[in-house]
Every structure is written in C-alpha cells, then in structure tokens.
Specification:
Elements lengths: L10 H12 L72 E8 L5 E6 L2 E7 L5 E9 L2 E9 L10 E7 L4 E8 L5 E2 L1 E5 L3 E7 L5 E7 L3 E7 L5 E7 L6 E11 L2 E2 L6 E6 L3 E2 L19 H9 L20 H10 L3
Parallel strand pairs: 1-7, 9-16
Antiparallel strand pairs: 1-4, 2-3, 2-5, 5-6, 8-10, 9-17, 10-13, 11-12, 11-14, 14-15, 14-16
Amino acid sequence: MAAQSFRLAGRAVVLATLLAVFHPIAADTIDVSVKVMHFACSDGIDNDSDGLVDHPDDPGCADGSDNNEADPATPSPPPSSSGGGGGGGIIYQSAHATFSGWGYPRRAVMLFKDAHVASVVTSAADGRFEVLLSSLSAGDYLFAVRSTDARGSGSGLVTLPVRITAAAENTVSQIILPPTLYISEAEVAQGEPVHVSGMATPEALVAIRISGDQTRTYTAHAAPDGSYTFRLDSGILTQGAYTASAQTRVGGAESSFGNMLRFIVGTETNARSPNVCNIPTDFNRDCAVDLIDFSIAAFWYRRPAPPVHLDINGDRIVDLTEFSIMAFYWTG
C-alpha cells in the first residue's frame, strides 16, 4: 500500500479516525470515506492532454508535487529588425508568497510548508515578522507558523491553508501568534492566587480564558518586552480541575487561543515542575496534543504494562478511553 499523508481537521475527525483504526466494525454498519489529494504531476493522468503523463515525462511538471501539468509558456519571438518597438515577454509559472504578522520580540519564527520547515526568520523588537518564499509552484498548500518564548514554551501552530497563484503577488498578512502561557502552580489551595504569565506581542492586549464549571475571560497587557503577568483569585472558583489558554489582540485583529494548561483548585498549593504543562495525553510534554502523542499511544495500544503516564484512567491498559480524552484535548 502506498504511503499517504493526511491532515487531521478537528476533534471529530480525530475520534472518527481512532474508531476506524482501533475499533473495527462491520462494513455494513458505518461508511467511512477519506478524501486524499493527489497532485496532477503524480496521479497517472494526462491532465493537459499533451500525450505526456506526470513528472518527469511531462515538461510542465517541476516535480511530483507540482499540481499543474500545463507546459511552461514559451517566450514570444523577438521583434523583426524592421519593426522597432518592444518584443513579447516570458510568462513565468513560478510564484512567490509573503507572510507577515506579529509574534514575540526578537524570537525565531518558523514557517512550515506542508509540514516541513520552509524558512526561519527573527522577529523585530515590536514582534513584527515577514517571510518571503520564492519559486513556488501554483497550487494549494498548508502553511503554518510557530514561535517560542525565552522559557521554551511554544505558541502552537497557526495553520494557513493557502492557494498560490502563478505569476502573481501572493500575500498572507495579519498573522498573529497566540501568547505562550505558564501557570506557576499545578494545584492551588482555594482562596490563594493563581500566577499566570507568558509572552505575547509587545504592548498587546492578552485575553486569558479559564474553563471549568463555567468559562471566564480576563485581560492583561503585555509589556514592551512582550511579557505579561496576571494574578487570578481562586476564591471565586469552586474546587476542581481547570484549563487556561490565552489570546493576543492587536488593534482590531486577534489570534486564536493558544495551547491549554491545566491546574487544580483544591486544599493545598503545589508548585508546577518546570516545563510541565499538565495536559492529559500530552505524552511527550511539549504542551500540545498532536500526532506525536497519537503515535506514542498507538504504539502502546492494548499492550501490557504501559508507562504510568500513558494510562490516564488507571485501568492498566491504553485503549479507546485514552484516545477519547486525546480527542478532547487535541491541539493539532
């Protein structure tokens, strides 16, 4: 079977995939279809009807991932010696794209193209960044942007499905990276403050969302160096488990909410271990629940004696319970 590449689009798709892979059912019970995109230059079809099929036989294909078999335009013939005036130009099939937005001050910003690092730039002191990619073939791409703060906490991926048009200016702007977020306490005694901190775009408004028995949103302001802090009064919260996430607001634009961090309001206060986000099913402890965690859980699926931190519900086995929890906390 040929290897295929899939992108999970959301929690529902994650859970449907888990059910199909780990809990097969009768074919007449459910019909699961997976749509896979094949590139024009590797699909075995003569898409431009020139008698030549796919890379490397079709001259219109730069490589197997090119999604357009159309042959490159040929230069117009040069003007005759008696004609004077200008001649025709070449129509270029490649394109370039510019990505710009706001992140953290003077931090590395990584741009991914179809899950591979395409470029790394350093943001300015005000958090602005701009990335130029050239020599792109026309077609549909999944770009993503990510950065980290001085503590090493990540922004999470900001995904950008983009259709690139040949011989055109392709611009993706107003990209805003969500803030990083850190909570000093893994558990806090009810009535004691919860200390929230992180990094955002300098002088931006930061919205902090606390989810538990109900959802509350608070605001903080990032300093000129991008840092922000907030003290949450846990006295207004009932005892139990909560998650926190944060959003950057710059002018009239806003980021998505970033990675979630879990904390508990209980009867005693315990400091959080450094670099531990305490998110269930974040098995590699990178403050995100994604395909890496999926792979770890898949390896231990129904195997005896799994590592304790993989056995979320304590039944000594990794099964659909863990994958259902993973679907809930999925960040992608």
